[in-house]
Amino acid sequence: MLAQALQAAGRKIAKARREHQMPHGRQTVRQLMAHGAATNSIEIEVPRQFDRVARRFNVDYAFYKTGPDKYLLFFKSGQADAVTACFSEYSKRLLKRSKSSRVPIREQLKRAEDQLAKEKPRKKERVKEAAREDR
User: Fold this and answer.
1) Mean pLDDT score, 14-34
2) Is 62:69 a contact under the CB 8 Å cutoff?
3) Which DSSP letter does residue 18 get?
């Protein structure tokens, strides 16, 4: 009985300790401001892409949506060097993505439709069209 009571008390203490630790990585703006450090912000467009890069640099950051496809990235001023490196890699990825030679499917379909419209109708189609005109 005594051992179980001590284990329960230990679990309660550990849980309270975990709740009071500062979060790291992506968090809310309120949590970031609660760190007590000065913060800076940068305007950003694709937060998901930035998330992938930022995980590797272990920076504390938060996003605040300002409009459709517009976000402010808040980060600690003390981590400005890490965020700068992270942001440069993020920029490289965005440029690489925009330069990709892959054509969107909708555009491919539109091109194919335009090409089919330009081609002359086949013999069978011409015969059917002539039969329709005779009626």
Assistant:
1) 85
2) no
3) H
